[in-house]
Amino acid sequence: MMAATIIYWGMTFALIGWGVWNLIFSIIYLKNKENSNLWFFAILNTLTVLCGLLFWWVFNNHGWQEYWLVKATTTNSLLGGVLIAYVVLIVAQVILGREPKVKTAQ
Q1: How far does CA 52 lie from the centroid of its chain?
Q2: Furthest-apart CA pair in the chain: how many Å?
Q3: pLDDT digits (tens, 9 = 90+) for 46-72
Q4: Which residues cross the membrane (predicted)?
Q5: What 8-state DSSP symbol labels residue 106?
């Protein structure tokens, strides 16, 4: 039964795809000076990281994999690297998402 392997790699590639999608739209929003949209992406990415961490936690415990999926699969460091990249992306989105203060006439 390869369900554990399919689920693991499916989730890993889904996280990579979602991250690339977010990166592309973050660049587009920065280019169009729509910085406040980055805050929304940062919130979505935070929820994505929390789900990814839960998934990573379960799949790094072979006992839990065997309980939920009957058979365990081996994991590698790609998923951990993707989650670290998400944290970097979230920090960048929060920093770059700030709107510049409007100067008032004196």
Answers
A1: 7
A2: 72
A3: 999 999 999 998 888 877 777 777 777
A4: 6-30, 37-58, 78-96
A5: -
